Every structure is written in C-alpha cells, then in structure tokens.
Amino acid sequence: MSDKPSRNEEEYFAKRSAELLRQQRDSIMKTAAEVERRAHYMKCPKCGYDLITGEWHGVQIDQCTHCHGLWFDAGQAESLLADPHPNMFARVFRAVLRGVSGAKASDV
Ligand SMILES: [Zn+2]
C-alpha cells in the first residue's frame, strides 16, 4: 500500500481549494463594494462633499454643504409631478424638467 495520494484525492483537494478561493474572492468583492457604497453615502454626486437633509416647501431634500446642489429621491420627483395642486417648489421643478427634457408644457 502506497502513501502517495490517489488521483481521486488530488482531484478532490484541488476542487476544494478552488471552491474556497472562489468563496474568499466573492467575500472580498462584497466587502469592497459595501465599503465603496458607504463611502458615497450622503455625499454630493457632483462635488463629493457632505449632504444635509432638510425640508423645503414640504419636500424633503438633500443639499450639498459645498456646491449647494439639491438632490431628492425618485419618489419625491414623482409626487411633485403628480400633485394636482403643485406648490411653488413643484412648479419650479416642473419648469426645470421641461427645460431639461425639452418636453412640452402639456406633457409635464
Ligand atoms: Zn456638491
């Protein structure tokens, strides 16, 4: 009887090593993606400075502390567009959207 590992054993350990390496790589990639995401959380997408949350004319917005850019969630944009009695902010938003998209006034 030989001490040399059989071909089946070698194959088994090679497959197991490859699987463990794949799992470690996946875990590292997930961690790196999470760290990247957290680094951008509440940061201005334009200049990278911090965003602060506030309310303006009943709409919750995030404002950049540096460039003063305004950001709000997609759901907020939809509610501004759907509002049958738009406040001043909603009217400004609709006007800006018309300018950006080139849509006709009746479309927005
Ligand atoms: Zn900014």
Give the C-alpha Rg: 27 Å
Shape field = elongated
- Name the strands of the widest sheet in spatial order: 1-2-3
Counted by DSSP, the helix tally is 3
Count of spatially separate domains? 2
* Helicity level: 40-55%
What topology emerges from the helices and strands here?
Blueprint: H1 7-40, E1 51-56, E2 59-64, E3 70-71, H2 74-82, H3 88-101
Antiparallel strand pairs: 1-2, 2-3
Written account of the structure:
With 108 residues, this protein is α+β, with helices and mostly antiparallel strands. The protein folds into two domains: 1-41; 51-107, no CATH class. Helix content is 53%, strand content 13%. It is built from three helices and three strands, in the order αβββαα. A three-stranded antiparallel sheet has the order 1-2-3, with no helix packed on it. The termini are far apart. The chain binds zinc ion. Residues 44, 46-47, 49, 64, 66-67, 69 line the site of zinc ion.
Output the keywords.
single chain; 108 residues; alpha+beta; three-stranded antiparallel beta sheet; 3 helices; 3 strands; 13% strand; elongated; binds zinc ion
